[in-house]
Amino acid sequence: MSLRKIPLSKIGEFGLIDQISRLIKADNAQVIKGIGDDAAVLKIPQGDKYQLLTTDMLAEGVHFKRSMGAGLIGRKALACSLSDLAAMGGIPKTAVVSLAVPPRLNVDFVQDMYKGIQALAKQFHVNIVGGDMIAYKEIIINVALLGEVEKEYCVLRSGAREGDRIFVSGALGKSLQSGKHLSFIPRIEEVQFLVKNFKPTAMLDISDGLAGDLCHITNSSKVGAQLYLELIPRVPGATMENALYDGEDFELLFTLSQKNAYRLARFNNQPFRFICIGEIVGKKNGIKLIDRRGKIKSFKTKAFTHF
């Protein structure tokens, strides 16, 4: 059936991405991974590395309010792309920033947005090398980020296998209420520790909620999963519903082989906190939530969508 006359709200963001991916096929030998992961993976002349490319667009009224402060808005715009690159095992290098801004907006507001961008860029050794700017009724900010990853450290969403253990890098839920969605630290250091020592089999950053993003891994890897509710870490005051579905936590969600999961648990000099919350099972089992009594709870596969 043709979807040409169907409103975007009917198929949602991920349905639209699926439709676009059917139209756009990368046939260039340079492309290792195109649409469908946290960043595109490209071949570059250096034989031991891949180039990573990602982009994030933030719109006023959807991802931020002007009252949140220009510096934090700018910081978040770059942080989202840094988080995507981290989830691929990568190191960020250069970025371009494009803005749509109302003509009546004060100059100092735009300057403060760039100060927020530049402060985070300096922290992670990223060079801002250009961009574009147009007038529009609302603020829209888009960051395109280039990075690189050693081939052996590149992690996709599609590598999870039955028996792997599922981990997160921190407590989940109530990111919008706490302000974490503006001030989170991209998990670049944590990822470098993981890829160099424990070889994650699949990974992404939690932007659409634990439940929705776990589906991205299980769908890409063609597997199922079991989550143990009592093990899922929550921020103080967050319900399990918050932890599963709120989104914008920007923590890592990753899988390790059973052997490497045990190694991580015994690692004496671990500088970071990683929490095992479940395991990968066969595809036919789907995704299940299991409480401490072994009872299976209902699981909704909803995620944040922009339509």
Tell me what the structure shows:
The protein is an alpha+beta fold and 307 residues long. It folds into two domains: 46-152, PurM-like, N-terminal domain (60s Ribosomal Protein L30, Chain: A), CATH 3.30.1330; 156-297, Phosphoribosyl-aminoimidazole Synthetase, Chain A, domain 2, CATH 3.90.650.10. The protein is 31% helix and 26% strand. The chain contains nine helices and 13 strands. The protein has helices at 8-23, 70-86, 107-123, 175-178, 180-183, 188-197, 210-221, 240-245, 258-266; strands at 31-33, 40-43, 49-59, 91-101, 127-135, 140-150, 165-168, 202-205, 224-228, 252-256, 275-281, 287-290, 296-297. A seven-stranded mixed sheet has the order 8-10-7-11-9-12-13, with helices on both faces. A hairpin with a 6-residue loop joins β1 and β2. The longest helix has 17 residues, at 70-86.
